[in-house]
Amino acid sequence: MAFQPLNVITSALRSIGALASGEQPDSATASDCFNLLNEMLDQWSNDRKMIFCQQEVILELTGGQFVYTFGPGGSVGASFTGSISGSVLTVTALASGALSVGQLLTGAGITAGTAITSLGTALGGNGANAIGTYNLNLPYPGGIPSEAITSSAPRPLRLNSAFVRVVNSAAGTLDYPVAVLSFEEYQSIGIKTLPGPWPRAVYYHPTFPLGILDYWPNPSQGEMHLFCDTVLNQFSTINDTVQLPQGYQGAMHWNLAELLMPEFGKADPSQIQMVMQQAAKGRRFIMRTNMHPQTPVQFDPALQQRARRDAGWILSGGQ
Questions:
Q1: CB-based contact 213:76 (threshold 8 Å)
Q2: Strands 242-243 and 132-152
Q3: What backbone phi and psi angles, to 5 degrees, belong to 44?
Q4: What does the pLDDT read at residue 302?
C-alpha cells in the first residue's frame, strides 16, 4: 500500500486531538513526529514478528576468500551500469558482484535510502540473470540517465538460513544447503582456513556498522544465497511515497499516536484506552500475518520400526 509518512503523522495527531479535521501540522511538529516515527520503525526491526518477509541476499564468492563484510559499503553488493525511470531501475551491464532485493543504491543523483524492493524482468544474482529491471522504493519523476551505480546489502540483525549454488546455467541449477553456525560452533572449528570446493557452513558475526560473514571451508567457487530478516528501512523525507504490505500504515498510525500522547499532554482516560487498544490491535494483526508455524520434525518411515511407533515395545522387551 502506497502512502507518505506525513499521512501517518497527521492521522496520529488527529487521533489524540492535537489537530482538528483538515488541519495540517506545522513544520516543527511534523519534524519531531517524523523523527519519532523513524525511531519506532528502528525498534520494530528488532522484533522478528514485525518483519513481513525474509530478504534473500545473493553473494558471488571469490575463490580463496572466506571473510566478507555485510552492510553499507561492504563486500556484499554489486557494481553495475543502470538507469532509473520513475521507480524502475534498468540494469544493462554488471561489472562485479551480484544483485538482490533489499540492496541500497549509491550513485550520482540517487537519494540516500533508495532500495530495490522487488524483481522486474531481472532475476537477480550475477551474469545474465542480473540484467533487466528492478522496482525501487522511491520514485524519480525526472529519471536518472545511464550511469555507474553501486549497491550494498543492509547489515541484517540475524542470519536464518543459507544455501550455495554451485551450478547455474540454462540447463538448470544445483544447490547445497549451508549450515548457519553459532558462535560456539564456529569457534570449535580447528582449521578455519581449510580449503574446499564450496562452503558447508557460515558464521555471521553481527558487528557494527558492518557485519562479518565467515565461511567454512575456504571456498573456491559458488554463489551464496543468504536469508535474513528484512530490516524496515527508515523514511528519508516526510513526503516520500513508500509502499508497505497491508496493515502497516494503520499500525504505524495508532502506535505513533500512543507514543505522542505524553508529549501532547493527553490525559483523558477513555481516549488513552482507545488509542492503546488500537495500537495493540495493529501490532497483533501484523504479528499474526507474519507468524510462521514451527515445522514439525519428520523422519523417513523406513527408519521407524513398526513395533516402536508407540510405547507397546516396552511390554515385549524391545522386540
A1: yes
A2: unpaired
A3: -60, -35
A4: 56
Model confidence pLDDT, tens digit, residues 194-218: 999 999 999 999 999 999 999 999 9
For the whole model, what pTM was predicted?
Answer: 0.79
Q: b/e for 44-64, b at 16 or more Cβ within 10 A?
A: bbeeeebbeebbbbbbbbeee
The rounded distance, in Å, linking the Cα atoms of 35 and 212 is 29
Residue ranges per structural domain of the chain: 2-51+232-288, 61-68+159-224, 77-152
| Residues recorded for the chain | 319
CA angle 157, 158, 163 (to 5 degrees): 140
What region does 109 belong to: left with phi over 0, alpha with psi -120 to 50, or beta? left
pLDDT tens digits along 47-85: 989 998 888 999 999 999 999 999 888 999 999 999 999
Residue 314 DSSP class: G
